[in-house]
């Protein structure tokens, strides 16, 4: 199967509508791909807090409408990155959207780990609570977003829920690019899954984005990696490798759960 990440430039000079049209065109051009992944909060900008309220939308809003049509046109599964979702009670969420080849919304995930340390996303958005996996025609997709990469327990939960490929949209800062490259490989290796991570490029909210979108195999090997410019990165993956590697190196069966610290320590 063929997997692509569309590493979009997210700049303050471009409106959400303009970027939506551009992203839809890029997705439509990926006919023949089996899975396409977009970045985190690419409509408003993950660091452009002042735009979140004006660019917030419901699950069935303009981004979902445009991405559904684009997925259907290309005949691909589409992880449409994430949007600023406004719930019916007014709460904002960082929410990922996954469409099937027919353009049907097959799953959505509200980001559990909110970045900001008492600022930004941590204070302006609600947090999700659900681990989300979605069965596709090529395997089970697990959903996570950006900062989630720093929390291995979520990825172990996705593994336990059947994930064979985990898709991670992001807006990871260039200043911590080394962390991004390390964590994407580590999460794929430790869970023995394919990991497709799409990071924005450009600059918004005063933060330069890291780019370097990547596809990593269950052995922790990088199959494809972008640079810093806007580009599409494509890799051919064999989902049978998940079972092969888990059988050849069956470390997951040796997990020891519920270990408690010794008394008095």
UniProtKB/TrEMBL annotation:
Which PROSITE patterns has this protein been placed in?
A: CN_HYDROLASE, UPF0012
Entry GO MF terms: hydrolase activity
Protein name as catalogued: Carbon-nitrogen family hydrolase
Task: Tell me which species this is from.
Answer: Streptomyces lusitanus
| InterPro entries xrefs | C-N_Hydrolase, C-N_Hydrolase_sf, UPF0012_CS
**Keyword terms:** Hydrolase
Q: Which domain of life is it from?
A: Bacteria
Residues in domain CN hydrolase?
A: 1-239
Q: What Pfam families does this protein's entry cite?
A: CN_hydrolase
Q: Which family does it belong to?
A: Belongs to the carbon-nitrogen hydrolase superfamily. NIT1/NIT2 family.
């Amino acid at each position: 199967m063929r997997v692509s990440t569309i590493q979009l430039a997210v700049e303050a000079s471009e409106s959400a509508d303009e970027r939506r049209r551009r992203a839809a065109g890029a997705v439509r051009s990926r006919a023949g791909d089996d899975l396409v992944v977009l970045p985190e909060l690419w409509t408003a900008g993950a660091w452009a807090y002042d735009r979140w309220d004006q660019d917030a939308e419901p699950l069935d809003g303009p981004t979902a409408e445009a991405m559904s049509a684009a997925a259907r046109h290309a005949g691909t599964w589409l992880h449409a990155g994430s949007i600023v979702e406004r719930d019916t009670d007014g709460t904002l969420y960082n929410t990922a959207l996954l469409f099937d080849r027919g353009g049907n919304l097959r799953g959505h995930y509200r980001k559990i780990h909110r970045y900001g340390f008492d600022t930004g996303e941590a204070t302006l958005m609600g947090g999700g609570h659900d681990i989300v996996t979605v069965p596709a025609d090529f395997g089970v997709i697990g959903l996570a977003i950006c900062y989630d990469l720093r929390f291995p327990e979520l990825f172990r939960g996705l593994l336990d829920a059947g994930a064979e490929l985990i898709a991670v949209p992001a807006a990871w800062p260039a200043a911590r690019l080394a962390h991004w490259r390390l964590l994407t490989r580590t999460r794929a290796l430790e869970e023995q899954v394919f990991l497709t991570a799409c990071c924005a490029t450009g600059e918004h909210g005063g933060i330069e984005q890291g780019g370097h979108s990547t596809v990593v195999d269950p052995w922790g090997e990088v199959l494809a990696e972008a640079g810093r410019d806007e580009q599409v990165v494509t890799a051919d993956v064999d989902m049978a490798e998940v079972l092969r590697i888990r059988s050849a190196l069956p470390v997951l069966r040796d997990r020891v759960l519920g270990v408690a610290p010794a008394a008095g320590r």
